[in-house]
Amino acid sequence: MKRFNQKYLKRIVDILEIIYEHSGCEAYLVGGAVRDFILDNFTSDFDVILPKKAFGVLNSRYFKNNFKIINQNSYLKFIKMCDKKSNLTIEFSAFRVEIYSNKNKYFKIPYFTNEVSKDRKRRDFTINSLCLNRFGKVLHCENDIKDLEIGIVRFVGEPYRRICEDKSRILRAIRFKLKYNFKWDKGTYDAVKENIDFIFDISRQKRREEFKKLLELRQDNTFKILNELGALKNMEALNLFDADSFIKKSKKTHNYIFYLAGLMITCEMSDSFLELVGINNSEKKKIHSIINLWKDWHENEFIVILKILKKYDLDFLEDFYFMCVDLNVIKKNSNSFIKIDKLREILHNIKEEMIPNSIRHLKISGLDLKECGIYEGPQVGEVLDELFLFVLEGGVNERDILIQKAKDLRQEER
Fold first, then answer.
1. What is the DSSP letter of 124?
2. The dihedral sign for the CA sequence 256, 254, 36, 81
3. Residues of the chain below pLDDT 50
4. Predicted local distance difference test score (pLDDT) of residue 3
5. Which helix (DSSP H) or strand (DSSP E) does residue 118 occupy?
């Protein structure tokens, strides 16, 4: 795991000092960055909080000259900015208390304050409620730092209420447990397990976002923990060992959609898994296409390569290759090794422009075929496919050779 970048911390402390010089108010680094600073883990998650009365300092000449606004919300007193000096993205927000109305569903109403202690109480977990001031000192309550030191995931406040306020906290709790290999606080564990069905009350988009973060941790006990908490109870029988084995051994598959396809192939999962992790219909269709390509690939790898290059692009083919490599590490099919080597060779040759990456880059066109009187009409497309396959399989991409190949194909038909 990459370590915390101390240069980033120095720059943040400088910014906190500048806010103090311009406003006379203390600002703080808060949340995940402080947690990862203490654990010496890399982070790109920088949140700075400051009193509402000091928020205007972010419109000062210094910030206008040295920062670029990415987005902002004046209602929530929130500004996301990029620091031109360090290229850090920093989220600035005013101290606030969040009041929830639970009529039918929880609705968050921000109430701004000038007290940092009140802001810290709205944080989800004790390990995320730590603050760092302009002197580089960490401010904390006794339990907060203790939980981080001994490795405990614990809600700030009453667990059930915190879950009802924001049901995505269930998945965040699981993610922090997996990411840092922490233990559960009993109250937190009980609340997460008893209310695990709330996962489906989370919007599909948010569920997808949280599961993506969770699954991409690639922790080899992910499905074991999800199953223990009851998140998989509505799914068909699942081989947890195979699922966690793929997560642990899949080193090459970086595209998330291919990663999910690889999981489904490994464990023979149904669409109930995709529903759980918040995948939309368009993504489901793409995942099923990948699975079908994988099945066809074992019959004729060149036909699959042709299909991919016709319908998708070179990036898709490369992601498919990485997925095949990871699947073969688990399934250990000796015949697949040969096919993977051939796919790697074709990818290399396309990147080096030794072979074309699409039919339109063949040294022959449908017009050439018609002019030579070889083919015309609908057959032209089929012949061009055959000529592209010929080149993928090692044939030379030269006009005269391709015309001769087309003639040979016509002769074979007769």
1. S
2. negative
3. 103-104
4. 83
5. helix 116-120
Cβ partners under 8 Å of residue 237, min gap 6: none
Under 8 Å between Cβ of 91 and 78: yes
Joined together, the tokens standing for residue 266 give 């490994």
Sign of CA dihedral 368, 370, 375, 377: positive
DSSP codes of every residue in 267-292: HT--HHHHHHTT--HHHHHHHHHHHH
Strand order in the sheet with 138-139: 67-73, 78-83, 89-94, 46-50, 28-30, 131-132, 138-139
Instruction: Locate 48 and state its tokens.
Output: 């700075």
How many Cα atoms are found within 13 Å in the side-chain-facing hemisphere of 42?
A: 3
| Number of DSSP helices (H) and strands (E) in the chain, helices first | 20, 11
- What tens digit of pLDDT does each residue of 275-289 get? 999 999 999 999 999
User: What DSSP state is assigned to residue 155?
Assistant: B
The percent of the chain in helix, strand and coil, each rounded to the nearest 5, is 60, 10, 30
Contact 196, 170 (CB under 8 A): yes
From the list 299, 294, 300, the residue with the least C-alpha distance to 321 is 294
Cα(382)–Cα(184) distance, integer angstroms: 60
Q: CA torsion 83→88→94→97, rounded to 10°?
A: 170
Over the stretch 9-61, which tens digit does the pLDDT of each residue have? 999 999 999 999 999 999 999 999 999 999 999 988 899 999 989 999 999 99
How many angstroms separate the CA atoms of 182 and 148, rounded? 9
Work out the angle between the directed axes of helices 314-331 and 256-267 (0-180°, nearest 10): 30
